[in-house]
Amino acid sequence: MEKNHYSHFTKIAIETLKNGEKYPYNIYRQVDEKIFSILVQKETPLSMVNQCFCVDEVDSNFYIKSEDKLKYYTFIQHHITDILDDDKINMDVKASFIKEIASVTMHELFSSDVNSENLSKINTLVNNSIKLMLTDRNAMYSMLKVTSFDYYTYTHCIDVATYALGFGSYLQLELDELNTLGKAAMLHDIGKKNIPHEIITKNGTLTPEEFEIIKQHPTYSVDILTQNGENNERILLLIEQHHEKCDGSGYPKGLTENEIDKLAKIIAVCDVFNALTTRRTYKDRMTSFDAFKIMCTQMNHHLCTETLKKFITFMGCHYKQDQDGALLVEH
Predict the structure, then answer these.
(1) What pLDDT does residue 17 have?
(2) Of the candidates 228, 195, 188, 13, which has an alpha carbon nearest to the alpha carbon of residue 99?
(3) Which CATH number do you get for residue 195?
């Protein structure tokens, strides 16, 4: 037996355990509040007859060491196609896997050099997200339930892409447009890698000089992606335009409504909504109602009115708010 603090272990989904499979980490079963026993040692084929193992037991809880989380999600990433195709795995579990893989992928992208290899992971991530959403209409709501409450640049990108893909699916965009929208939304802020960290994380209002630096990030995003082989002109266009405003007061080119791509208008709405409804070090998150109130009044000349109306309808179709303003699925 191993005695350890609960936080040193991470729960894993029982549905992903397969007879005869080898795993690059030990798998544990919780047998008491702070007691865990090794169920399967790493690189040892899992057997359904292992002592203390019963996949049909509803309250069975299986864990890995928290230090092995990256190995776990790397393993899941390599097997994600089979997982998404498995009807026995709950949709919420599938959505949580997509979110965790996205978190690992985007964190790596923002914390290391951008290259063709990690950009290809974004393509796979977007394709899997679309596949999940188009497989089952409830998948979209499972994906939205795992959006973040706290704002970090990389989680913000994931959440904006999730909202954009859900909204795009609701609008019945063609598959190629969904792919373009999802990838552009996922990578729209990658240029912030080139902005000084103290500006990105500043606890308070930016000075005019700092804001001028921030305004360069759409251009930086395009430059980074172009230098690493991205040649889809529309993806680059959407990323460049995600801070343009319909009244011409946006950046980097001061475009007006008719000059802004329709998919860039979607990203802009999702970008603002996520920024308002996530928590920062200097502000608490807003409820969806308060965010939409601001977007419809103070930002009504900035955002595309038609796109915003449709987004509010999309978000309201199957959701209600709890007392903290979080979105809950209406079943």
Answers:
(1) 80
(2) 13
(3) 1.10.3210.10
Q: Which helix (H) or strand (E) holds 152?
A: none
State yes or no: cis peptide before 252, omega within 30 of 0.
Answer: yes
CA distance 110 to 187: 10
> With 80 as the cut, is the pLDDT of residue 183 above it?
yes
Higher pLDDT, 113 or 257: 257
Nearest one of 178, 77, 168 to 118, comparing CA atoms? 77
Q: Is the domain of 214 the same as that of 239?
A: yes
pLDDT surpassing 70 at residue 309: yes
Judged by phi (left if over 0) then psi (alpha if -120 to 50, else beta), residue 251 lies in: beta
The answer to whether residues 50 and 150 belong to one domain is no
Is the pLDDT at 86 greater than 90? The verdict is no
Domain count along the chain: 2
- Write 293-299 long-range contacts (CB < 8 A, 24+): 295/269, 299/272
Same structural domain for residues 93 and 56?
Answer: no
Write out the residue range of the structural domain in which residue 37 sits: 1-68
Mean pLDDT value across residues 239-247: 97
